[in-house]
User: Which sequence fits this backbone?
């Protein structure tokens, strides 16, 4: 298979972790007889510095022409001043909108070898295997924004159509897994959440009657993710709630650095990235965990290229590496830690047919 992949390394630790993700994809291509071409483009803060725009036209053109996009991380203190006219995050929101990726899949699974590495008791996190489906192009992040010297507002709005399409993605995923879907909202307070609950209920009842649906308020969900995380299968929620809760859920696995994500729309092209940020405090030190990015590369193979065996080859390599004691600083718990490059090299070496 021939495929073109745009690589947006971004800022901070982004270039360090995407390098390992690309190495994993190159190994897969060599082993399975594929031809992947990689087009590296500036994005985020580095694009502001080099082009005066977090999403330059040439970067967007490359993404729109690609079969898939692999992203590292963006942002940092250099571009985050309250009065900053250009922000890396604005480029990311625009990219999601231009690509039409409205469903963000964030799997969270606790590897048995890391059950003792989380801040929760091993018996609480053991067996956790859930997937968040976060609506990605609506809600408060994309609503009208107003600001004066003494007042600010951000409008949160959703249409029934936006809720319907992300619900279908989540329900179809639940149907292929354990058949349970949890919808998270704040319907006791917010009208957008009342609409959300009504639409989710209707779509599941009419189109996915075999899926078991439950509704949970967002504050209760934040508690239950810590109290009984293994009870969840697929979780669907709106943009901001999903942004917050998925960071919380990532700690069930032991570290933000372990968690991948896939942002998908109606076509096959997707945007793939680890859920961690740019971590400017450790950028350039070679200690970032590349596992989330490498697993994002596996999701890229599965969802955009339709290469299931190749995706599993990467996931199995990561599992074997962790079983063998591979640990970066974030999950080493004071023990021996390897560098970003060493971790990537070890995982790539374990990728087999």
Assistant:
């Amino acid at each position: 298979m021939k495929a073109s992949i745009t690589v947006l390394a971004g800022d901070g630790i982004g270039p360090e972790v995407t390098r390992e993700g690309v190495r994993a994809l190159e190994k897969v291509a060599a082993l399975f007889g594929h031809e992947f071409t990689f087009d590296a483009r500036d994005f985020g803060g580095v694009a502001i510095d080099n082009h005066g725009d977090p999403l330059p036209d040439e970067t967007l053109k490359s993404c729109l022409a690609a079969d898939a996009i692999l992203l590292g991380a963006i942002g940092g203190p250099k571009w985050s001043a309250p009065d900053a006219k250009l922000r890396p995050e604005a480029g990311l929101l625009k990219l999601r909108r231009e690509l039409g990726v409205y469903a963000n899949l964030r799997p969270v699974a606790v590897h048995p070898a890391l059950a003792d590495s989380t801040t929760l008791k091993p018996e609480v996190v053991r067996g956790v295997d859930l997937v968040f489906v976060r609506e990605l192009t609506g809600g408060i992040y994309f609503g009208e924004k107003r600001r004066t010297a003494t007042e600010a507002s951000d409008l949160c709005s959703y249409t029934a159509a936006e809720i319907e399409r992300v619900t279908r993605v989540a329900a179809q995923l639940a149907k292929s897994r354990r058949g349970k879907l949890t919808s998270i909202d704040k319907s006791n307070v917010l009208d957008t959440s009342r609409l959300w609950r009504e639409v989710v209920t209707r779509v599941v009842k009419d189109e996915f009657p075999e899926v078991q649906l439950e509704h949970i308020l967002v504050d209760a969900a934040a508690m239950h993710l810590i109290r009984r995380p293994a009870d969840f299968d697929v979780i669907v929620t709106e943009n901001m709630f999903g942004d917050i809760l998925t960071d919380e859920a990532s700690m069930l696995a032991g570290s933000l650095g372990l968690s991948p994500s896939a942002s998908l729309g109606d076509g096959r092209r997707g945007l793939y990235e680890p859920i961690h940020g740019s971590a400017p405090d450790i950028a350039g030190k070679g200690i970032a965990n590349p596992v989330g990015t490498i697993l994002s590369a596996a999701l890229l193979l599965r969802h955009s290229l339709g290469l299931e065996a190749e995706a599993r080859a990467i996931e199995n390599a990561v599992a074997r590496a962790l079983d063998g004691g591979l640990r970066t600083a974030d999950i080493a718990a004071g023990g021996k830690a390897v560098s970003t490059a060493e971790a990537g090299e070890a995982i790539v070496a374990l990728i087999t047919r």
